[in-house]
Amino acid sequence: MTATGTAERLDLGVVLQTDPPAWRVVDLARRAELHGFSHVWTFDSHLLWQEPYVIHSQILSATHRVTVGPMVTNPATRDVTVTASTFATLNDMFGNRTVCGIGRGDSAVRVTNGKPVTLAELRTAVTTIRGLAGGQAVEHHGSTLHLPWAPDSRTPVWVAAYGPRALALAGEVGDGFILQLADPDIVAWSIDAVRRAAERVGRDPAEVSICVAAPAYVTDEASSGTGGGGPGNVGRRTLAHAYDQCRWFGGMVGNHVAEIVARYGAGDSTGTDGDGGPSIPRALTDFVAGRVDYDYNEHGRAGNTHTAFVSDEILDRFCLIGPPARHVERLLELRALGVDQFALYLQHDANDETLQAYGEQVRPAVQEAGRVRG
């Protein structure tokens, strides 16, 4: 990060669902590496999809360079000592190529009628996983624990957050911060909150990696028409179709935002409270006004029936949708805000085409501008 807060480079990651067949997930990860992506992430919801860590081992075996981890796991359904041991084992097998994205618990917890952990519990989980998976001794439930067989293991822990207190936690103890939407105004507000929190505890804000994750769908240049790219793609790469394929993401984000609004109240246009501290920016709360109940059985799926309140305008703000030039423009904007990595969700019907477009058009164009690691 430069003195002005601008990231010196922008890495690219891909976020995959562990839907069967698992070989398809591994193949997409392998293709992502070939297209220059630095990270491969997967969902972690053990009832909705297949077990991610088993698939992670296969991804690491089939690739040579990418870093692999969950976006995101949680300390409610995953015992933190088991999670740390899993990462340390993968590191021993494949080198230190793992990362742990973690949050309070969402779909994995909700489908069992459970509750997310508290922020205090999340804070403990971050330090415990990082310590154990980093070859250190940690205090856990009154005992001193360590993994004697993993002295050289290292796994950074990145915290997913939306609300003010969670953003503060990410800045205080996270190796990285994950924001699951790509609206530039909200990105700027969130990064500022994370950096302020890091400074308050004496950390260098540049130590906290910033990752923005959102769906990316590359359409044709003339995307308002019927589409192109051959008979099989007619209508598939139009803008309208891309919006429909990514509308699920607005529902997922809306579910998180509704919980935050219930806790903190709707924000104002500035994103600060009366004392100058972080509040909830109105740009993040207005769009949930028409939200209905959310069904986690449709979580993260195109065609989700609980997303009618998500407008095309919101999708333009939260996602990267359109021809390659539009993606390049947004990526450069995110990089200027201090984003270190953009991780694109591929939960739609054009994952092969999007990966190819990023590898052959989007990434080279951003790289040419000197923004992406070569």
Structure description:
The structure is a single chain. With 374 residues, this protein is α/β, with parallel strands linked by helices. The chain has helices spanning 22-34, 52-62, 80-94, 107-110, 119-132, 164-173, 184-200, 239-264, 282-285, 312-318, 324-337, 351-368, and strands at 11-16, 39-42, 67-70, 100-102, 138-140, 143-145, 157-160, 176-179, 209-218, 320-322, 341-345. The strands form two sheets. Strands 1, 2, 3, 4, 7, 8, 9, 10 and 11 form a nine-stranded parallel sheet that branches. The protein has a two-stranded antiparallel ribbon with strand order 5-6. Mean pLDDT is 86; it is low at 224-235 and 273-277.
Task: Provide tags for this entry.
nine-stranded parallel β-sheet; single chain; 11 strands; 374 residues; two-stranded antiparallel ribbon; globular; 12 helices; alpha/beta
Mean pLDDT level: 86
Query: Which word captures the global form?
Result: globular
How many extended strands? 11
Class by helix and strand content? Answer: alpha/beta
For this structure, the quaternary state is single chain
Distance between the termini: 17 Å
Q: Name the beta content range.
A: 5-15%
Regions with pLDDT < 50 over 5+ consecutive residues? 224-235, 273-277
| SSE order, one letter for each helix or strand | EHEHEHEHHEEEHEHEHHHEHEH
The gyration radius over C-alpha positions equals 20 Å
**Tally of DSSP helical segments:** 12
Helix content: 40-55%
* Biggest sheet features: 9 strands, parallel
